Amino acid sequence: MRTLELNAGKDSLRLSRLVFGTGSVGGSIAFDEAADLLDLYRAEGGCCIDTARMYGKGASEEAIGRYIALRNCRSEVALSTKGGFPSGNNMHHSRIRPAALRSDLEASLRALGTDYVDLYFLHRDDPEYPVEVLMPFLDSLVREGKVRFLGASNWTAARIAGANRFAAANGLTPFTISQIQWSLAAATPAMWEDDTIVCMDNTEEAFYRQACMPVMAFTPLARGFFSKAIAEGVDSPALERYAAFKTPLNLARVERVRALCDRYNATPAQICHAFLTSGSLAGLAVLGAKNRVQLTDSLTGADLTLTAQDLEFLCAPDVL
């Protein structure tokens, strides 16, 4: 499986381009099934497991910690978790504060059964909270050895740039990776009905290219929009849940995905993942596989690399 390498100071970290997402682990995916999926993922070269303190109210991290202990594989995987998710039912009630972040991190370490995490993402942002306070605190977590690399989840490019400018000017650890919503389906926060998420757009993409910062894409298959549209037809009642995504641009991209599926004898999921991992912008796709069939599909296409012409074809602005 293709990988990329993060570097910060003297530290480096290898990440597989396909990341094992665990939002359902410990919930709808029971431990034995999750362990089977993780075994398959690792057997095919996967080495990055992504979770969050809020997934299953800690159940996801506990399941991962149990798996790592049973397989004795901590040194073989990159653990990624997230903290500071908003409290209660109010997504604007920010917990991006040192005390809350430290509490979440300590709870994550206990659940995961480890002394450190390889990646620690701030799970949403509070644009009003000063980076002048936040970045020294995050740097302290790295210096304590509890975090290796810092990430921002659902932060705008402007906020990451500001935080990293302050970090650089003061000798602090910067953000080295970002996690936002990114897929072949052009989307907006309104389409996801959540104005606290950040979606890839031209402004965000320009920043990541200039900064050479990797992006870990969540919901990389747009909840299966392309797979469902190609299997059922764009006018199928089965696509009612995707009504917001049925824009002229995205419908044109359905036909382009279909064409590349035929060219490469690939599935829509494989094409959509390759779209993220083949370009000059360093992309990783967080897999949302819930069973062995879905995971096998993704892993079978793990090394599929699209050409620059393929990527241009998929993203052409004109509507067929």
Mean pLDDT: 96
**Percentage of residues assigned to helices:** 40-55%
Major sheet characteristics: 8 strands, parallel, barrel
Topology order in helix (H) and strand (E) letters = EEEHEHEHEHEHEHHEHHHEHH
Quaternary class: single chain
- Pick out the low-confidence regions: none
Number of helical runs? 12
Amount of beta strand: 15-25%
* Alpha carbon gap, first and last residue: 34 Å
Instruction: State Rg.
Output: 19 Å
Structural class: alpha/beta
Account of the protein in words:
The protein is α/β, with parallel strands linked by helices and 320 residues long. It is built from twelve helices and ten strands. An eight-stranded parallel beta barrel has the order 3-4-5-6-7-8-9-10, surrounded by five helices. A two-stranded antiparallel ribbon has the order 1-2. A hairpin with a 2-residue loop joins strand 1 and strand 2. Helix 1 packs parallel to helix 11, helix 2 packs parallel to helix 3 and helix 9 crosses helix 10. The model has no long low-confidence stretch (mean pLDDT 96).
Summarize the SSE layout with pairings.
Elements: E1 3-8, E2 11-16, E3 18-21, H1 31-43, E4 48-50, H2 59-71, E5 78-83, H3 98-112, E6 117-123, H4 131-143, E7 147-153, H5 157-169, E8 175-181, H6 189-192, H7 202-211, E9 215-218, H8 225-232, H9 248-264, H10 268-277, E10 283-287, H11 292-300, H12 308-315
Parallel strand pairs: 3-4, 3-10, 4-5, 5-6, 6-7, 7-8, 8-9, 9-10
Antiparallel strand pairs: 1-2
Helix pairs in contact: 1-11, 2-3, 4-5, 9-10, 9-12
